[in-house]
Amino acid sequence: MKVMKFGGTSVGSAQRMKDVCQLITQDGTSKIVVLSAMSGTTNTLVEISDYLYKKNPEGANNIINQLEQKYRAHVNELYATEEYKQKTLEFLKEEFDYLRSFTKILFTSFEEKMVLAQGEIISTNMVTNYLKECGVKTVLLSALDFMRTDKNSEPDFNYIKEKATDIFEANPGYEIYITQGFICRNAYGEIDNLLRGGSDYTACLIGAALMSEEIQIWTDIDGMHNNDPRIVDHTEPVRQLYFEEAAELAYFGAKILHPTCIQPAKFSGVPVRLLNTMDPTAPGTIINNEIQYGKIKAVAAKDNITSIQIQSSRMLLAHGFLRKVFEIFESYKTSIDMVSTSEVGVSVTIDNKSYLKDIIADLMKYGTVTVNENMCIICVVGDLAWHNVGFESLATQALKEIPVQMISYGGSNHNISFLVKEEDKKRALQSLSDTLFNK
Ligand code: ASP
Ligand code: MG
Fold it and tell me: Which atom of ligand 1 lies closest to the CA of 7?
């Protein structure tokens, strides 16, 4: 069975929900459908939570009431029959009363998770009711019954596999199986989530757990592009990506996919296809275990990067210097993206500046520290294994007019990263596109 995931904009209005239902039922085959909350809803639930944290029940109630009105209007538009309108309005009444109940109790992160979960609970109930109204054999299986994280807040894959298999086997014969993206329980059974944008992750975990034939992520873009179409002229969708190439691209900026979600799919060898709800017959991008020999696939950029260079005469012939440097970053829970070393120094980049002052203070014990903010990592992705001669020089050639502060190559077979100033980003991306793809 295929797993199909639809994000917030794909279910963002009554009409969009109808389009999704048309799309998932048109060929009559059985499918697992993972849905996000309607677009904007999770942000609104975050806003409600902020009011509740600040002990402002009126503020929270105002937004809850506005959201309720919006949903009631969707119901009127979505359903044709009184029966389903009434049924869904009753469900919404219970949901919004439940949200209002949080204004009367102490609000902690525990309650916040319950509030944030309601967006997906509402969207999946609405779509399930609509499919039932249309006479489609549909069942809603709650993600809270099989999606679970472990004590490190990582998905508990073995548990998910076992539970999901049991639950799907106990419900044979349906055409459409609906479930919620994003939401889960934690190791203690409490309601939790897979972090913002986590519905992709849900879909990949389910697809991997059930060894689906394919995981489809439906958005409103035509697959992954070979460069950022908002910045660069003449970009094209990439038809095929190796799992690791897709992971690099997702991490370094191509917003279309949740960066960690590829891992379970890669692990189980289940292909992931990115498709466009606005143009459902377009081929999109397939992500699988195939490497296209010697091919550069795409370029992506990550902004808001800070580089830190530590130079020390003591590094010369000293062992343990890098460990000491890295330990400082670790102690401030700050992860490092790029690293370059020389005999007398090391440069790293970070994207989380929360502890920058403390980190610099600690690093100064080991040498001279230089910091550059507003930098940008440009990453070139493809089959760039070192025995494929000439690809790294092609990328470097494209940047010959642009000041490059760091280069990282050889960390994997699929990536070369360049650190440039943010102000040079557009020029760098355009020049890479022109050199690598638009010859
Ligand atoms: N609704 C959640 C969010 O907005 C999860 C998702 O859309 O993937 O982050
Ligand atoms: Mg998303």
Answer: 7
- Whether 191 and 305 share a structural domain: no
For residue 181 and ligand 1, the question of a CB distance below 6 A is answered with: yes
428 Cα to the center of ligand 2, angstroms = 27
- Residue 371: beta bridge partners? 308
Ligand 1 near 197 CB (within 6 A): yes
Asked whether residue 124 is domain-assigned, the answer is: yes
The predicted pLDDT at position 316 comes to 58
| DSSP per-residue codes, 239-296 | SEEEHHHHHHHHHTT-TTS-GGGHHHHHHHT--EEEEETTSTTS--EEEES---TT-E
Q: Which domain holds residue 366?
A: 297-436
pLDDT recorded at residue 374: 98
Domain of 141, CATH number, reads 3.40.1160.10
For residue 51, give the H/E element and its range: helix 41-53
Residue 197 CA: nearest ligand 1 atom is: 8
Cβ 237 under 6 angstroms from ligand 1: no
* Binding site membership of 42 for ligand 1 (Cβ less than 6 Å): yes
**Is 412 part of any domain?**
yes
The tens digit of pLDDT for each residue in 143-171 reads 999 999 999 999 999 999 999 999 999 99
Residue 12 Cβ < 6 Å to ligand 1: no
Q: What is the pLDDT of residues 253-291, one digit of tens each?
A: 766 788 788 899 999 999 999 999 999 999 999 999 999
Whether 209 maps to a domain, the answer reads no
318 within domain boundaries: yes
The whole-number pLDDT of residue 321 equals 85
Residue 254: the pLDDT is 66
For 156, the 3-state DSSP assignment is: coil
Phi and psi for 417 in degrees, rounded to 5? -115, 140
372: CATH: 3.30.2130.10
Domain termination site, one of 139, 171, 199:
199
pTM (predicted TM-score): 0.90
What average pLDDT does the chain have?
94
Which residues does residue 155 pair with via DSSP β-bridges, in sequence order?
149
Q: Given 146, 181, 199, which residue is the final one in a domain?
A: 199
Ligand nearest the Cα of residue 123 is 1
The pLDDT tens digits of the residues spanning 89-137 come to: 999 999 999 999 999 999 999 999 999 999 999 999 999 999 999 999 9
Do 193 and 46 lie in one domain? The reply is yes
How far away, in angstroms, is 39 Cα from ligand 2 center?
A: 9
